[in-house]
Amino acid sequence: MNSKRQNQIAGAIKKEFSNILLREANHIFPANVLISITKVTVSPDLSIAKIYFSIFNAKDPEEIMEALHENQKELKRSLAKKIRNFRRIPELEFFSDDGIEHAQKIDDIFKSIKKEDDNSKE
Hints:
By secondary structure, this protein is an alpha+beta fold. It has four helices and three strands. It has a single domain (4-121), classed as K homology (KH) domain (GMP Synthetase, Chain A, domain 3, 2-Layer Sandwich). It has a three-stranded mixed sheet with strand order 1-2-3, with helices on one face. Strand 1 (34-42) and strand 2 (48-56) form a beta hairpin.
């Protein structure tokens, strides 16, 4: 269970990191790629922030994740400039959140089952 402080820090990181990706990190990934932060969790000691992304319109989402990892120090520095009231900025860890893709696949399966069922009734 997350503490109130963990949730506050996670919310602040999510908000500011979203702005950084939108305004300052255009050189990291192609312009047509959409990156959405789905979740941020912070460790109990506030030393690690896990940031989960959904990536859309990318030929290779893993390539985008690699680019984020390669620019991790620069992104952390940008975050530190935005959030000055933290004693220490947590280490950033990036993860791909494929929950939306997974949900879409399940939805497609249900649609195909329904279509097959409708065809068999006729």
